[in-house]
Amino acid sequence: MIFLRYESFREYLRYYPVTSVILALNLLVFLADLVLEGTPLLDAGFFRLHPVYDRYGLLEPWRYATSVFLHANWEHLLFNMFSILVFAPPLERLLGHVRYAAFYLLAGILGNVYSAAVHIGGIHSAVGASGAVYGVFGAYLYLALFRKRVMDEASRKTVYTILLFGLLYSLISPRIDIWAHVGGCLAGFLMLGILVRSRGR
Fold first, then answer.
1. How many contiguous H segments (helices) and E segments (strands) does the chain have?
2. Residues 58, 49: contact at Cβ < 8 Å?
């Protein structure tokens, strides 16, 4: 089972430095907004569309990336941080630190791009690492379907279960941006497929 974590705190930091930085950054940004008056970081970084003034989210394009490191509340933060803590390390080990960092950020951005494409012409706002998290799950889905020898059966079943549960929960919860989840998952699936095929050649 590749998702069981046996590392000590120091080992985790040493083996998975990018994942550790992502976890720390998300937590520090959230805590900073709790300490500062209002929520200046959230206000400056959340992703948004406006049907008249900013239909494509390009007036402030940095929001496609900054929103990936912002969260609306403790529940939102802790759910995503738990997912990253448990599920991201094997992917960082597989891809390497630099490639994994680019993969994670790009999955989050492309999740927002997909959501923006669905919501063009309407008012839309979103925050959270979920698009990037689902990018990680999308990568594992590719491995589970096309590179089965890389994952044991229990790990493959875990991936299928998480994606099914996540889809159902996204459908019944009005607060969740399901399209960012779908976009992130597709991005992770396709990016890992491209990496695997390019390395195979």
1. 9, 2
2. no
Tokens of 86: 């448990």
Contact between 5 and 11 under an 8 Å Cβ cutoff? The reply is: no
What confidence score (pLDDT) does residue 106 get? 98
- Distance CA(116)–CA(60), nearest Å, equals 13
Nearest to 177 by CA among 140, 107, 124: 124
Residues designated as active site? 130, 181
Q: Which residues of 50-84 are buried (b: 16+ CB within 10 A; e: fewer)?
A: eeeeeeebeeeeebbebbbbbbbeeebbeebbebb
What pTM did the predictor assign? Answer: 0.94
| Complete DSSP assignment for 18-77 | HHHHHHHHHHHHHHHHHHSSS-HHHHHH-EEEBTTTBTTS-SSTTHHHHGGG--SSHHHH
Res. 172: pLDDT tops 90: no
CATH architecture for residues 9-200: Up-down Bundle (1.20)
Strand partners, 49: 124
Query: In the chain, where are the structural domains located?
Result: 9-200
**Statement: residue 175 has pLDDT above 90:** no
Cα-based angle 169, 130, 89 (whole degrees, multiple of 5) = 115
Rounded distance, CA 73 to CA 103, Å? 25
